[in-house]
Design goal:
Blueprint (H helix, E strand, L loop, with lengths): L12 H5 L4 E2 L10 H8 L11 H15 L6 E4 L2 H7 L8 E5 L4 H8 L5 E4 L16 E5 L11 H5 L7 E5 L22 E6 L12 E4 L2 H9 L9 H12 L5 H20 L3 E3 L7 E6 L4 H13 L2 E2 L1 E2 L11 E4 L3 H12 L1
Parallel strand pairs: 1-11, 3-4, 3-5, 5-6, 6-7
Antiparallel strand pairs: 2-8, 7-8, 9-10, 10-13, 12-13
Helix pairs in contact: 2-8, 3-8, 9-11
Length: about 350
């Protein structure tokens, strides 16, 4: 349904997480794998040289091979956020953002002078709405941040009317399962754009690495013209190489561990009445803080922050408010500390 909503904000989880003793605010793994650190350390001595364009192309080919698409369909990015920044350079005038969702594309299109149609989903946020015929680009997350809702690929492909661009933010889908990705459908859907992140699962948010999968003529070619001559650094290329030669082999273990940790965390939260409002399949959950009013929830948030426990406030997401919190999935000791604080 199309309803008025508060504008999105650039208050992201990293702001609350700075200096926190226990961080539930940022959806990034808590430690960088040793094999990835080793790969990055091995490149430090090479930083005097400019990034190698052939090596960048080889890394993109490695990613393409993993997904089963042609190499020219992949563009390595300085984080998936760079991909969103590039999108206003496409020939669009009426972007639509499905909310609650990641706020950056909404802000980026607005700043670029493209008025955004915000489509707000009601709880439990799992029914796709009809989209206006005027929409020439639609953005949706899969799984969606902050709800964690996972959409069926066929449902997402149904947004493609052959005329509009459909942008699917798959920043967290690697820990859910590649069978849920629409990347294999990109070669047959020339206006389908998929954005992926390497910073979440592999705990390298400070390095900024992601990639876009899209048609090379309709999307990637035009967007490449707006990038600098050396768009990706040597360490970013090395990180991509390491992830797609070794990291992807460890994903089955990551997925099973996430499932166990998420279920355990939800059981713990239920003991204090903090219950999920959506069926999250992501490394985070969206909950209501018991029977607290929005003002009481804001006060509780500030008290937790004072104790060094960071949660993700949700008043910055269109369609949500202070009566919701997003919590990154964490291990039992961290959740125990949160539960103890909530009981006091």
């Amino acid at each position: 349904m199309n309803v008025p909503a508060c504008p999105p904000s650039r208050i992201h989880g990293d702001i609350a997480a700075r200096g926190a003793r226990i961080d539930f605010s940022v959806n990034v793994a808590t430690s960088t794998p040793s094999w990835l650190i080793d790969a990055l350390n091995s490149e430090i001595a090479n930083l005097a040289a400019y990034p190698d364009a052939d090596r960048l192309a080889a890394a993109e080919e490695l990613i393409a091979e993993y997904h089963g698409v042609p190499p020219d369909y992949v563009m390595l990015l300085a984080g998936a956020a760079e991909g969103f920044v590039l999108l206003p350079h496409l020939p669009i005038t009426h972007p639509t953002i499905i909310h609650p969702g990641f706020s950056e594309p909404d802000i980026i299109f607005t700043d670029a002078g493209r008025p955004v149609d915000r489509v707000i989903l009601p709880e439990p946020f799992n029914v796709l709405p009809s989209i206006s015929d005027d929409a020439d680009l639609v953005v949706i997350g899969n799984p969606t941040n902050p709800t964690g809702v996972l959409w069926r690929p066929d449902d997402l492909l149904g947004l493609d009317d052959g005329r509009r661009f459909v942008v699917v933010d798959e920043a967290f889908i690697d820990v859910v399962g590649e069978e849920h990705s629409v990347i294999p459908q990109v070669p047959t859907h020339p206006r389908l754009i998929v954005l992926r992140s390497l910073t979440k699962t592999w705990a390298i948010a400070g390095l900024r690495v992601g990639y876009m999968v899209a048609d090379p003529d309709i999307v990637l070619g035009p967007l490449r013209r707006w990038r600098p001559h050396w768009p990706i650094g040597t360490l970013q290329i090395a990180a991509a190489e390491a992830v797609f030669t070794h990291g992807v082999t460890t994903l089955p273990e990551h997925r099973s561990q996430l499932l166990a940790d998420r279920e355990a965390m939800l059981r713990q939260l239920a003991t204090v009445g903090w219950l999920p409002v959506s069926d999250s399949r992501a490394p985070f959950v969206l909950v209501r803080p018991g029977d607290l009013s929005p003002d009481q929830a804001r006060t509780r948030y500030r008290k937790l922050m004072a104790r060094g426990i960071a949660l993700r406030r949700c008043d910055t997401f269109p369609g949500l408010g202070w009566n919701y919190f997003r919590l990154a999935v964490r291990k039992k000791p961290q959740v125990d500390s949160l539960i103890t604080a909530l009981k006091e």
